[in-house]
Amino acid sequence: MGEATMENCCVCGRWRRWRLAQLLQRCPLLFSWPPEQRAAVLFGQLARLGLTAAEAARCFVQQPVTAGVASFEPATPALAGLLTGGSKAGSGKSGEQLLGDLLRKQPSALVLLCSHQATLQQRISNLVQRYGPHWEQDNKEAVIVTAVQGQNWALLNSHPEHLLSLEAMLQQEVGQQPGDGARLLASILQHQALTATCSAPVMQQRARALVAPALLAAIAALQQLLPWQPTAAEVVQRFATYPAINGPERLIGRLLFLQQEGLLPLLVADKRAARQQWRQRRRLPSNRRVQGEPLFMSLRDTAVLPTAKLCTLLAEAEAAQLKQPPVIDSSVAERYCAFMAQLPQLPAYQQLLAAGQAESRRLAALLPPELRSDAVEQEDAEEM
User: How many CB atoms lie within 10 A of CB 81?
Assistant: First the structure.
């Protein structure tokens, strides 16, 4: 297939020649048929969803296997219907336009358009019927759409049998009552849907990791110190990944430092919502920042930011509390470094670590016999 033919199939004024070469290199399957039988057809269908030629090509580059289907139209109604039913009212967009937006943000989601319509509808129905009863939100499809739009499109590519295997594993590893596996997986699907696409052995390893004392100490710290007082289940479901980012000890130390500095109340579950609530209580415009507004922080800020950026943020928060203009001040960084240096000797830290060790032993006792020795060995290794 000549380059001139490719350019006729993929017309875009700002599309550079190297983009065409990249598409041919990454997705030669697309050009294995005459253009009127494959490339022109598929590009045309994506154009009707609102994608430019460059945006459509990006999808094929990320998912070359999608060029193997003759048409995307069979799967389009099921996906468009889901996005329409699960999206907020008033957007003014059709299901096809919402599908185009999804592909624009997540080009690899193009693989969903290779599914049979009946298969997609079966997977959507399975999610709603089996896990929907555990979701507090009335619109069950909205939970799925939120997960799919949050970089977790692969949820719709998960077989019901795979989800059942994850259920059984969770029930065996951490379940204490019948149905705990389904309830926990439902929460995972709602808050961390990408986790549910991993294999059962990987999920099993993550469940085993819950018996690590330091991690459990961090979970205890989150439960005790976060101002909105989440339950242990909510911490595990929504925030258990944060202690693993830079180590649970650092997260515990940062939370305790915020407590010492009197900044813990500024830690909120949702910064945008907290700002809007603060403004509404004072009858201020909710769509723009106003003078004297607190500098709210998220748990992600606390867990992920490098030390220098975190200390700068804390200095700004202190200045906002004192209603002073922010200044470059190294005192916060000095206090933070001194605090973290003496962290292992602090009674509050030792109490949290002891709570984590006690919970580790409790969970280890609940594990099946074949896993119990591994958990004990892991705890012993961490204490050495």
Answer: 17
> Under DSSP, is residue 75 helix (H, G, I), strand (E, B) or coil?
coil
Give the global pTM: 0.56
Between residues 328 and 340, the one the model is more confident about: 340
Matching residue, tokens 């129905």: 125
List the structure tokens of 222. 């989150």
Which tokens in the block code for residue 364? 């280890």
Please tell me the distance from the alpha carbon of residue 32 to that of residue 70, in angstroms, as a whole number: 12
- Binned at pLDDT 50, 70 and 90, residue 124 comes out as very high
Provide the pLDDT for residue 46. Answer: 95
Phi, psi values for residue 212, rounded to 5°: -70, 125
For residues 138 and 86, is the Cβ–Cβ distance under 8 A? Answer: no
Q: Are 189 and 142 in contact (CB under 8 A)?
A: no
pLDDT value at residue 176: 64
Cα–Cα–Cα angle for 335, 341, 344, rounded to 5 degrees: 125
Read off the pLDDT band of 5 (50, 70, 90): very low
Tokens of 117: 């319509």
Taking CA atoms, 383 is separated from 208, 357, 379, in Å, by 17, 10, 6
The span from the CA of 232 to the CA of 239, in Å, is 10
Q: Which two tokens stand for residue 304?
A: 């992920």
CA quadruple 240, 363, 231, 220: dihedral sign: negative
Q: CB under 8 Å, gap of 24 or more: what pairs does 12-20 form?
A: 12/52, 12/53, 12/54, 14/54, 15/53, 15/54, 15/57, 19/54, 19/57
What pLDDT is stored for residue 355 in this prediction?
Answer: 83
Exposed / middle / buried, residue 250 (Cβ in 10 Å: 0-12, 13-18, 19+): middle
Q: Tell me the per-residue pLDDT of 156-193, one tens digit each, with 9 for 90 and over.
A: 988 999 999 998 988 887 676 788 888 888 888 887 77
- From 107, 105, 99, select the one nearest 62 (Cα to Cα): 107
Q: How confident is the model at residue 327 (pLDDT cuts 50, 70, 90)?
A: low
